[in-house]
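Every protein is a chain of amino acids, and every chain bends into a shape of its own. The fold becomes a row of whole numbers, each drawn from a learned catalogue of backbone shapes. The protein below has been through that process, and both of its lines are reproduced in full.
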Amino acid sequence: MTPFRLADLGFAVRQWLADVGYATRLLWAVLRHSGSTLRRFGLVRDQIHFLGNHSLAIITISGLFVGFVLGLQGYYTLQRYGSSEALGVLVALSLVRELGPVITALLFAGRAGTSLTAEIGLMKAGEQLSAMEMMAVDPVQRVLAPRFWGGVIAMPLLAAVFSAVGIIGGWVVGVVMIGVDSGSFWSQMQSGVDVWNDVGNGIIKSVAFGITVTFVALLQGYRAKPTPEGVSRATTRTVVMASLAVLAIDFVLTAMMFSI
């Protein structure tokens, strides 16, 4: 049994290395064509609208309810220590540092990432990508690169909307419903949130998540088997792999940011 187990292990490692190499080459190809893609910004603009504007509803509603929960839970936690006036800074730091980028990335993977994977997979199944190659049109430059940069640009914007709406939700619960002093809510937030260390770190996280989720979605769609079952499996892999990658990268970035 030992030789067979070693053979299976060797095959798995070789397949993993091949997948990593393929993903690296594809990412390099996308980045190599970025200059020509950004010069034709209309293609990127359309993808920003498709990925960002169509995800705005779920991002806004989710941000509002996350703000409601933060305001409620934060108030009752801070009230034990007589610090309910610090509710504003608690809500703001929780959103701009952590919850805003992470939850937005997870929702973005479920909404926009699956759309990208299904779209690219169906184009491959319909042999549209092969037709582009026959006409001397590089599908990486014409199809993948605009969608990649559209997702990278849309993700930080959506995270900012999520955090802003979440702060409003925390204000509604804390100030309007519970009765925390409005001046204390905003002044504590203003003095406790640092633009560079808090908001800046959140922006860095959202950009990293945008790159990760968008590339995973494009990679899975580009490598999907040209069958309905292959496209459906690729869409499922996009959600699973992108979500796990977001959580892992969040831990790494948080550890690096707090150690600097």
